[in-house]
Amino acid sequence: MRNYKFLNHIVLWNVFFAIICIPTAGKLIDVMGIPLSISIYYFPFVYIFADILTEVYGYAIARRVLWYCIFAQLLGIVIFEFVIFYPPSAVMTNNQSYVDVLSAAPRLVLFGTLAMFAGDIANNYVLAKMKVWTNGRYISARFVTSTLCGQMANTAVFYIFGLWGMIPTSVLAKSILAASFTKVGVELLVLPVTLKVSLWLKRIENVDYFDRGTNFNPLKF
């Protein structure tokens, strides 16, 4: 594989946003009376970086970075479990606060990882295929369409399984739709920057990958 200049930087930020969702995604906020995970405001950046990776470097590299994120999340949960079970100091009176927050992490990681995997693969697959079909044109439409597919898959899996029991079933469907469109909205706001970064990277890295003949097996590392 070529030694790209900026690929490692994108990997770093992608992993960062994937990790911070672990202890925070369980916090629910109300948006127009609908309970949503607070991660709607920053999780979209995982898909923004996935769009850039797929558009510039190709599906296979984006898939590999997705696996990096999954491994990082699993390692993070091991550390969280160590923090929970290690006996606190006698002077620490608020240890239960750490336990309450971090004890939800295994469930959030399990279903959050499944959700991220399903959504990321859907996002990257749609974007890669559309790029080939359109011969690299309509980049904005490709980013928006792939993002909508990915976010719908991600949100449905995470809200149904990861947040089960936390969000009333009577408003679950509304929460899924509201969260999906809110996250897409965040990505639309950042879209001009995403487009400029993608075009800049193509020029600097001297690459504009088309996934013709790519093995799209999502389980391949």
How would you portray this structure in words?
By secondary structure, this protein is mainly alpha-helical. The chain has one domain (7-205): Orthogonal Bundle (Arp2/3 complex 21 kDa subunit ARPC3), CATH 1.10.1760. Helix content is 70%, strand content 4%. The protein has a two-stranded antiparallel sheet with strand order 1-2.
Strand content: under 5%
Structural class: mainly alpha
CATH class: Mainly Alpha
Specify the biggest β-sheet. Answer: 2 strands, antiparallel
The helix count comes to: 7
The span between the termini is 14 Å
Instruction: Please indicate the count of domains.
Output: 1
User: What order do the SSEs take from the amino end to the carboxyl end, as H and E?
Assistant: HEEHHHHHH
Rg (C-alpha, Å):
18 Å
State the CATH topology: Arp2/3 complex 21 kDa subunit ARPC3
- Overall strand count: 2
Oligomeric state as shown: single chain
* Shape category: globular
Unreliable stretches (pLDDT < 50, length at least 5) are: none
CATH architecture: Orthogonal Bundle
Q: Helical amount among residues, as a percent range? A: 55-70%
Mean pLDDT: 88
